[in-house]
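Dear Dr. V.,

Thank you for agreeing to look over these. As mentioned in my earlier message, I'm a first-year student in the group and I'm still getting used to reading structure tokens, so any feedback on how I've presented them would be very welcome. I ran two proteins. I've put each sequence directly above its structure. The first is here:
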Amino acid sequence: MPSPPSGLTATERVSFIGYDAEKTHHFCTEVLRLPLVDARTGSDEHGHAYLEAQYALADGSTLAYTFYDEPTDELQRLHPLRHFAFEVRDVEMLRAWKEHFIACGLPVIGEIDHGAVMSIYFFDPNEIRLELSTNLIAFDDEEARKAQAIYDRWKQVGTTEQHTPVGGLGAHRG
């Protein structure tokens, strides 16, 4: 395994809980003029259905929002989906970082294959959730078309009728 590099240099994604998918989508696409490049539906570990939408930034990173149909009080508070994600070059490097963190005594969650990215999660000393991830797909025009179809379907039927697995509605690695 290669040793992790001495520094992290890129933001892969900044993630937030969103509370209004339609307003957020309009804000990101029309106001900020960011293209929708990935969308996925699924259920979290508590069984809550969600839509995750990612909008591309010019440097190749993304601004990500996760929407729940009716957030519970638990979801309204600071949620682990509010986190900062660093990018690493490939899965091999991700695994090297994981081994390094474990050797340092840092608890690590994952290697989690999200379909679009592979990730590990950990907390800094301030209990801020951090993520290292690497892209598993190209965020290209084909993925953008899939993302728009997933977003449109979510908007049409909402979470109560979907009950889809992570990466549902046909979004998958290309």
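The second protein is here, in the same arrangement:
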Amino acid sequence: MKNFWRVFYLICAVSTMVLIFLVVSLFKGDQITFTPSAGEPLDEITPSIQSYSPIRGNSTNPTVIIFSYSNYLCPACKGVDSALTEIIAKQPEVAVIWKDFPNSSLYPESVNAAVTARCAGDQKKYWEFHDRLFDNQPTLGRETYIEIAKALELNEKKFTKCLDSQANISFVNADYTEGTKLSIISAPTIFVNGLTHTGALRPQELELMVKQALDALTAK
């Protein structure tokens, strides 16, 4: 009988220690982290295409989708955008989805630039305005935006009203929020069918990423 109680107490002690270990291991800081059961899917955050997302290239049935988180004031972003333009011309199966990722602390004018491009988009001239923003990167500001709008023959009254009211800033903010959820910390950052690259990118490097994406699809 004594042996029975010894075994019983030993089992209880071991069980208590295991329970304490499990509870402690679930804590991370002041929060409890729950591990999903085996086979339970994890929520995966991925770049998304929204109704307001500007699309360039193959907009109907692309094989490779490139998401470009960028802003108009950053020099490296200009280089990556140029590489993206080249790849679209060479690869008809590629689509590029522009995502606004302004950095107002480093580039105070980057939010306004993103808004003005979308104002031009309201008049079906998004990509034309987009390109001219990069072409005029050193002088971006209200005067330059209006000059570009005039050169593209936009309705100036509608354009300036859109600019002054920041009518499309919610789209810019939505892109930025999505980028932060994806743990993006700086622009340019691109996603090529899941492959990720941050920083300056030469056209040859982008071509290699597209090739890797295509090879991966062929191997499936």
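From my reading of the second output: The helical segments are 2-25, 75-90, 110-121, 126-135, 142-151, 156-165, 169-181, 203-219. The beta strands are 27-28, 31-32, 55-57, 64-70, 94-100, 189-192, 195-198. Does that match how you would interpret it?

Kind regards,
E.
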